[in-house]
Design goal:
This protein is α/β, with parallel strands linked by helices. Helix content is about 40%, strand content about 10%. The chain has helices at about 1-10, 15-25, 30-40, 45-50, 70-75, 90-100, 105-120, 145-155, 175-185, 195-200, 205-215, 240, 285-305, and strands at about 90, 105, 125-130, 145, 160, 165, 170, 190, 215, 220, 225.
């Protein structure tokens, strides 16, 4: 219990809330179950609670590329702020159903995705979910942890797409169009495993945007995991993909495996540190240059003898 208490205290949760959950679940409760119960109780890490309170300075996790509003007030450089990170638009239905193994609409999956982007420093995060998911769950469409939707709505993160009932039948607006349209206008990133093929055919500009800005993901043991190479092996890294100002890696020249014994001269494509301050000539060119020098010296000697 002490190890679990220390772990969740480090994550920022209150000691009283953690003790209460551990008493309810028992000493053998899994860490995932404890975290799930803390979220269900509405307990928030202190870092998130402090966001609502105006503070002059705010701690930033090591490795985060965002600065706080407090630093901005002090006149710090704004180029490293969260403005350099792309807006995030999450397909709530896709993420929730993926976390629920396509059987249950798991709202906790949405919370995990939102927390992952928050920890990276993204300030603009929007989740789109159809309005009818607010209704009490039915047997054919079960929902887990529905209270999370209400909490995210209060934080202005969750947006419900319109739906209504006409003569007992549900009329639902196409939430995918909202997702793509907002992400396109904000020049952000779409978080979904859907390819939106119908919308790609509908608008050529959207087609390019979906191909270049779609971030797929996986859930591994209740952990939200996007790929390190969102556009494939030869594409940008995840950090560059999520950044408005990608940092290009420096090209390191590979040293020549032959070293000083290399006979390619200036035609060698590898790096030669010993040739930095001299003209890189091929062996044939060096021999030609030497013969020219020798022949010119021979001619001068002949002239001297004739004179």
């Amino acid at each position: 219990n002490q190890s679990k208490l220390d772990l969740f205290c480090k994550l920022g949760y209150g000691k009283q809330d953690i003790c209460k959950v551990l008493e309810n679940l028992g000493p053998e409760a899994l860490e995932d179950d404890v975290l799930k119960e803390l979220i269900r109780m509405g307990s928030k890490p202190q870092a998130l609670e402090n966001q609502a309170q105006p503070s002059p300075l705010k701690l930033v996790a090591r490795g985060s590329c965002s600065t706080t509003q407090g630093l901005k007030r002090l006149g710090e450089d704004e180029s490293d702020s969260s403005d350099s990170l792309r807006p995030i638009v999450i397909d709530g239905s896709n993420v929730a159903m993926s976390h629920g193994n396509k059987l249950v609409f798991s709202c906790w999956g949405i919370q995990l995705a939102v927390d992952w982007f928050r920890q990276r420093g993204h300030t603009y995060i929007k989740v789109f979910v159809p309005l009818w998911r607010k209704e009490p769950p039915r047997q054919e469409s079960p929902i887990a942890d529905q209270h999370i939707l209400e909490e995210l709505e209060k934080q202005s993160i969750l947006v419900y797409t319109p739906s209504r009932k006409v003569k007992g039948k549900r009329v639902v607006c196409y939430d995918d169009r909202y997702i793509v349209k907002v992400a396109y206008e904000k020049d952000g990133v779409i978080v979904s495993n859907d390819h939106y093929r119908d919308l790609q055919n509908e608008n050529p500009e959207w087609k390019w945007f979906i191909e270049q800005r779609l971030l797929m993901y996986s859930f591994v043991s209740n952990r939200f995991m996007p790929p390190d190479d969102p556009l494939g092996r030869h594409g940008p890294t995840l950090d560059n993909f999520l950044s408005k100002k990608p940092v290009l890696p420096e090209k390191k020249l590979q040293p020549c495996p032959y070293g000083k014994k290399c006979t390619y001269g200036n035609k060698c494509k590898f790096y030669h540190p010993e040739r930095l301050h001299q003209a890189q000539l091929s062996v044939a060119d060096e021999l030609r240059a030497k013969t020219k020098v020798l022949s010119s010296l021979g001619k001068e000697e002949e002239r001297c003898n004739c004179s």
